[in-house]
Amino acid sequence: MSLDLVVQYLTSQSFLNGAWITLLITLVSLFFGVLAGFIIALAQQVRFAPVRVLTVLYLWLFRGTPVLFQIIFIYNVLPSFDIRFNAFWSGVIALSLNEGAYMAEIIRSGLQSVKKGQRVAGQALGMSRLSILRWIIMPQAARIVLPPMGNQMIGMLKTSALVSVIAVQDLLLVANQTASADFRYFEALTAAGIYYLGLTTIFMMAQGAMESALDPKLRRRRAAGDRGPRAVARRILTSIQTAGGDNVR
Amino acid sequence: MSAEEKILELVDVYKTFDDLTVLKGCNLRVKKKETVVLIGPSGSGKSTLLRCINLLEPPSKGSVVFEGHEVSGDLRGADKLRRDIGMVFQNFELFQHLSAVENIMLAPMKVLGMSKADAHDLGLELLRKVHIPERADHFPDELSGGQQQRVAIARALAMRPKIMLYDEPTSALDPEMIREVLDVMTELSNEGMTTVCVTHEMGFARRAADRIVFMEDGCILEDAATEEFFGGRANERAQKFLSQILH
Question: Beta B6-17 vs B20-31: how paired, if at all?
Fold first, then answer.
């Protein structure tokens, strides 16, 4: 075992590229996943029955099959219907659609957690439906939704490793290829592990920052001087604890 | 009653939920600057009648006339109608993610397009009016029930309503906090704010109301001037109800 080699892998162009691809797939899939989830969550509240049936069908399909299956299906089966995407986009589409199904449930529960009376109070003030959604429902739902959503985001970072089966040059594939070429499994996978931990740590901290940004009381306390190194350390610790769950698919 | 001093009229209002008829042909007239207290046993339809006024519950039949215009025909105008009608709820329903002053600022900013600075000034002015200016930056869960309800009153007043509706405003309060809310309501009423209030607080009714309306089983059984109502001239059913709630 050689620490020098770990460092050498860590700083190599191919690992850096792999980590970048992993991050890119994660962020792009999260963007479309949250978007899909939000649309599905709102569609579930539509009174027109066929729309609701479609959402149920979507949730059933994407929660009912393994995400690995979905990735392979989109990459290998759709081309026979003349629908072609390159490996990167096949991965992104599968991950987004899958994520959308889980996000939809999270966002729906968030929207439902805001009591009906809050909407009625907005109505009584003469606010429009859109205004009520934007200024009353969404800010309150966001605080409920953020912790499970953070879990999903960290989960996505790890799930993205599945795209290595369709030969996207992500962090795991790069590490695995390097390892088998040099017979240096320990060093190559350690380097990949360090990258993954680094990325998830950044995600956890981002989640913690978003949670406190959405908590007006916390914001006020901070403005009143809860800064200092100890406060920062406490915040990071709390953010790691709240983001600690895992998602199993 | 001349036409110009009448602000609100409910004409033969029915309200049906699925197969349950909650209101069975109610008629009510409210004059400008008048305070009307609605009483009656629970389930008699008082709250539903109140919610018909600002169309939170559109009547199944009959009409709501506000300032001489029938408003119950086209619900697309409901948002606009509700700007002129303030409402206070039993459970306050303050927006939990906003501070006291922000609760008051929201509707003037988002509905009337008021600037943030102006809305903030208005918010502080109204908090002074309900006697809690020092709580401006507190969040609802940091306020007592009485304080929350007073912020809710201020929030409704921020739209400069022409009439205020109160739906059992003190029923969710601890006894020692009822007074501070009723005092604010009485002050507003004395200043000439047109008021319709559903309540069991007979002290408030005696003090502030011009008229008492007694409801039972979806019907208005009595509609009398306050002195008459409490002077033993109310109908038999209303008398019985009074004796029950006064113990």
Answer: antiparallel
Residue in chain B closest to A120 (alpha carbons) equals B56
- Measured distance CA(A215)–CA(A199) in Å, rounded: 25
> In this predicted model, what pLDDT tens digit does every residue of B160-177 receive, in sequence order?
999 999 999 999 999 899
Total length of chain A:
249
Residue B111 to residue A121, Cβ atoms within 8 A: no
Taking the C-alpha atoms of residue B201 and residue B39, their distance in angstroms, rounded to an integer, is 9
Place of tokens 């162009």: A13
CA distance A201 to chain B (A): 28
d(CA B185, CA A214): 34
Contact A101, A62 (CB under 8 A): yes
Q: Indicate yes or no: CB of A139 within 8 angstroms of CB of B106.
A: no
The whole model's pTM is what?
0.81
A143 shares contact with chain B (CB less than 8 Å): yes
Chain B closest-CA separation from residue A118 CA (Å): 6
CB pairs under 8 A between A and B: 67
Residues 93-112 of B with CB under 8 A from A: 93-99, 106-107, 110-111
User: Cβ–Cβ of B97/A143 closer than 8 Å?
Assistant: yes
Inter-chain residue contact B159 with A128, CB threshold 8 Å: no
Give CA–CA dist A238/B143, Å, rounded. Answer: 27
- What sign does the CA torsion over A22, A28, A31, A37 have? negative
Query: Taking CB atoms and an 8 Å limit, are A118 and B83 in contact across chains?
Result: no
ipTM score of the complex?
0.91
- Confirm if B234 and B214 have CB atoms less than 8 A apart: yes
Domains and CATH numbers, chain A: 3-242 (1.10.3720.10)
What ranges do the domains of chain B cover?
94-161
The tens digit of pLDDT for each residue in A196-208 reads 999 999 999 988 8
> B122 and B201 in contact (C-beta within 8 Å)?
no
Please report residues of B whose CB lies closer than 8 A to that of A125.
82-83, 106-107, 111, 155-156, 159
Alpha-carbon span B57 to A91, nearest angstrom: 49
pLDDT (0 to 100) of residue A248: 40
Which chain A residues contact residue B98 at CB under 8 A? 216
Instruction: Tell me if residue B14 falls in helix, strand or coil.
Output: strand
| Alpha-carbon distance values, B42 to B15, B53, B161 (Å) | 16, 19, 28
The set of residues, in sequence order, having a beta carbon less than 8 Å from that of A1 and lying 6+ positions away, is A186, A187
